[in-house]
Structure formats: structure tokens, C-alpha cells
Amino acid sequence: MIQETSEQIRKRFLELNVEIESHEIERRLKDLIERFKVPAPEAGRSVVSYFLREHDIKREDYYGTPEGGTASSMQIADINESEQWVNLRAKVTQLWESTSPSIAQVGLIGDETGTIKFVKWAKSNLPALVEGKSYSLENMTTDEWQGRFSVKMNRTTRISELDEEIVTPDQEAQLVEIDAINESNKWVNLRAKVVQLWESEHESIDQIGLIGDETGTIKFVKWTKSELPALVEGKSYSFENLTTDEFEERFSVKFNKGSSIEELDEDIEVGFTATEFAGTMVHIQDGSGLIRRCPICNRALMKGTCMEHGNVDGDHDLRIKAVLDDGERVQEALLNREITESTSGITLDDAKEMAVDALDQGVVLDEMKKRLLGRYYTMAGRVLDRYLLVESVIPMDAVPHSEIDALLAEVT
Amino acid sequence: MAGFTREVAYRIFAQELRDTTVALERDSDDAYAPQYVLTPTGAKVNRVFVVGTLTEKEDIGTDTEYWRARISDPTGASFIYAGQYQPDATRALVDATVADADAETPEFLAVVGKVSIYTTEDGNVLTSLRPETISIVDAETRDRWVLETARQTLDRIKRLEDGSSENLAMVEEHYSLDLEQYRQMVVSALESLV
């Protein structure tokens, strides 16, 4: 291992007309690896740096053309190995929000054969790439994570803008239905309704939530940077030029600067998967019971404050966010006022009275926990992301003797 | 939000919980990794749901209240410990009445909680439950729990027997794999319902 690394370093310096004794390299490597417990690749880097300084050679000259060869000019679809040096002629099709100060730019580049993610390190001091422009990008390294490739730009990378425009076939977004989305990094157009807006957890995200069409629902992310108009819950839109993404086998669509949003006159009917879950209510989440909603946007208030509209005089409502558990799976369930009333036997008026009497609206949740936890229910409704939106609740009846007998017969 | 999934509440009879002696090692790289125990029928459990009769309760706390209670199902009894860090469960426990022959309507406790295992000074391994929620339920709910627990226990026994249980190797390593006693336990639990 040490000898191999040492030999590589020696050869590379030889190509730069510098002769270094093998044992000199080996001694330094060994010292770092064995005595200082430095990981081997890091030790290699450190030793190279030492000799570069010693012989006054630029890093670029050493790393620029690795292994004596040059980076090969490729097309994106041909990238199938990590740690390769490549040159591409590609167009920047998307710039994403950088998630780390060490990353200057991140996004997608594309050529005739496909698109690939790129990362440009802040350290590498390269010129800024502009979305929609085409470049010749030389000396990048390839990387792979979970079977997906990316290219990394480093301080030896050369970026020059091209006069011609690289054609990226994927840029031609197709109008698709939501359940047909099964690949990431695709450009799509959708006609869909905004089903839910969630609280954005990061200032770089302007809006996040769910959109749906007749075939299903999908998560969307709209970046603050892309400066698009605000979406309103319940309205239907035509969306153009979104890109698809995937995380843990669930797909989402992302808006970017090139996306367009147009409100539709029609109301798109959203198709949901109807489902049923039978189990015990093992938990009732915070934010259940007697709550207040913002009179403008209908969002639940937190400590009397709407995230959007500040201090408002909220309207009372009842809801339960429950966890059902059948011993094998858990399902979160959302019960609206009507279902909460019929399941708990506490009406909104009862709840208000209870809260006034106790000078505490928490008593409503306490009473609901007392009445519902540990009981068995069959709940039916539509599944929306994590939640089952409950449309009907049937408490489970007494166990029929025939079921007990049948199981007994099976064991004995 | 991503990546977090709530632990399922396993249905386990008291006898099997009492026989549970194996605490699995926690993933040391993940500070939030849940603690699991391995039961003799091969359930890898962090959380359980049990329903039974409250047969004893006692405040054993010195400065603050700390309750020890016994909850019994048709196969045996489990200990529950609840104190100031489980305020809801503690309150429910304080309100609950200990089963008593004179009670007009029997009262059952439904408990969702985490299982813990500890070794006493003389080397005995004991299991207990730290409740998250306790509620008082009726006899129908208790019966359904017994039936459901019987069915799920049998499923685990079958999966050990036909080799399809992913925890088979661990069970073999730690337990005697005498599954007949647990089959008998299921039978007696079911018979108590008839």
C-alpha cells in the first residue's frame, strides 16, 4: 500500500522532471500513516504537498493531468465510473440552492445525451456558472452516490463559455400525469391542484407541499430564489418546466427559475388512494383537541399566532391527529371536526364550555385521550402523504366467539 | 421528518415479557437509536401495547411520586413504573382503581409503553414497562387485545418454526427455543375468553 502510493508519487514527479528517492517518499508516508494514524489518501496528499513546496511546483501542474494522461472528453450518458477525470460540453440546466458554505454552486448540467448533477466547491475559485448558458468544462472528477453519478469541479477545472448552445433533449418538458413520474432529473409539465401547503422549514424554500391531479398526489418544493408567484391551497394550475427528484423511492417535483405557473379556471379533481386501517389508537399528537385557526388562511394557530398573518383572533375548531397501530404497522390519522365530534362524543360547543370552565383548553385534549386511547377502531379515508384523512370511524365491536374458537382450533 | 418512523407497539403477553431477558445492543453511532429487547418468540421490541387488570399500585417515591403498579393478563403480570417524567400516565394510574371483587364493573388498563430490562443485585433479570399512555378501557377491548395478542404471538412462533423469522438466529443464540410453552400460553389465554 505504502509502496504503491510512493511509486505513484515518484512517477508523477518524474514526469515533471523531478527525481525523488523512493525511500524518502516512503519514509514520510509511513510516518504519517503508522505513527500519526493519518488515513492513507490524506497521507499521500500531504507528502505530495511537501515535495511540491520543496521543488516549487504548482499544485495544478501536479494534479492537472493525472496519471500522465489527460481527462477524457465524454458525453454525460457515458459517465459510469467514479473518480474519473472528464471534460464535458454542457449546458447549465438548473442551479440549486447550495446547502453548504463549502459549495459555491450546485445544480444540473446537460448535453445531448442526458443530465448530471454538478458540484462546484467554494474553495476552487471558479467563475460563476449561469443557468441556461453552455460551457466547455475541462478537468472535472466524477463521483457516485447510491448509483447516481455527479461531476465535481475543482481548482484545476477550466470553464469557458461556448458560443453555440448545447441541446439538452430533457429540457423539452413533457406534459405528464403525476402517477407516471417514476424517474428523477426529468423535466415535466403538470396540470394539478395545490392540495396542501406545509410550513417551510428553511428560508431557502419559499413554498412546499402537495399537488395532485386525477392520478395521484406528489410533493413539490419551490425555492425562494426562483422568484415565482405564490401558490394558493385549493387552486388549480398549469405548471411548466418542473424537474423531478427522488428520495427514498418517493418522488417530488421542484420549481426553478425556468418554471412557469399559470392559474387554471377549471377545478382539477384530485385522485386519492382510498384505504382503511384497523388498529388501536396508541397516541394523540400535540395540536389535537380544541384548536384555533387563522380566519384568513385557516391554518392552525400556534400560541395564538398564525405563521403567515401573525396575531389574529382565531376561530375555534376541533381535530385529532392520532396514531393507529395494529401491532405490525403504524398509521397517522387526521380527524376533522365532524369525525372528532362523532368519535369522541365531544362537540365543539361542549369543548368550548369545558375550556371556559377549566380556564384551559388543554382539558379537551385530556378528555379525548381518556376516551379514545387504547381503543380499537377501523378508520377509512384517503391517504395524503403521511396522513390518513379519515372519512369514517367504526369502533370495533366485541370479539365474536367464533373468532376465538377458530384460532383455538388452529393451535390445538 | 424524513427517515423517522414511529416504533410499532408489539402485542406481547405478560408471561413472554417476564421471560424476556435479552436487551439488544444499541447502535452506538446513533444517539437516537431506540433500545430493543428480544422476546423468546422472536419479537424485536421497543414499544408494547398491553391490556390487563390493575392488581396493585403503590407510590414508592421518596421525594417525588413514583408509582409501581402490577398489571395482569391471563398469562401473568408485568410491572409498570411511572413518575414525574410520565405525567399523563402517572395521573391516569393515580385515578385508576385496583381490581377488587366488590367492584361493580371491572376496569381494565390499556398501556402503551417502552420495555426495559434490568438485573437485580442477586442476578435476577427483570422486565418492566415505562408507560407513555395509560387509559381505562372496557372488557370488550381487553378481549380484543387477548385475541389479537394470541394471533400475533402464534404468528411469531410459526415464523420461528418455519425459519422465516428474521430474528431466528438471535433467538437461537439467546433462548432455548422451547416454543411449546408459548403455544400453551396462547391456548390458555384464548380459553380464558370462552
Q: Would you kindly provide a written description of the structure presented here, covering whatever features stand out?
A:
The complex is a heterodimer of chains A (412) and B (194). With 412 residues, chain A is an alpha+beta fold. Chain A folds into four domains: 2-63; 72-161, Nucleic acid-binding proteins (OB fold (Dihydrolipoamide Acetyltransferase, E2P)); 174-263, Nucleic acid-binding proteins (OB fold (Dihydrolipoamide Acetyltransferase, E2P), Beta Barrel); 273-396, OB fold (Dihydrolipoamide Acetyltransferase, E2P), CATH 2.40.50. Chain A has eight helices and 21 strands. In chain A, the strands form four sheets. Chain A has a five-stranded mixed beta barrel with strand order 2-3-4-6-5. In chain A, strands 8-9-10-12-11 form a five-stranded mixed barrel. Chain A is elongated and about 90 Å long. Chain A starts with a helix and ends with a helix. The mean pLDDT of chain A is 87. Chain B has five helices and nine strands. By secondary structure, chain B is of the alpha+beta class. Chain B has one domain (9-191): Nucleic acid-binding proteins (OB fold (Dihydrolipoamide Acetyltransferase, E2P)). In chain B, the strands form two sheets. In chain B, strands 5-6-7-9-8 form a five-stranded mixed barrel. Chain B has a three-stranded antiparallel beta sheet with strand order 2-3-4. The mean pLDDT of chain B is 90. In chain B, α3 (139-161) runs antiparallel to α5. The chains are: A alpha+beta (412), B alpha+beta (194).
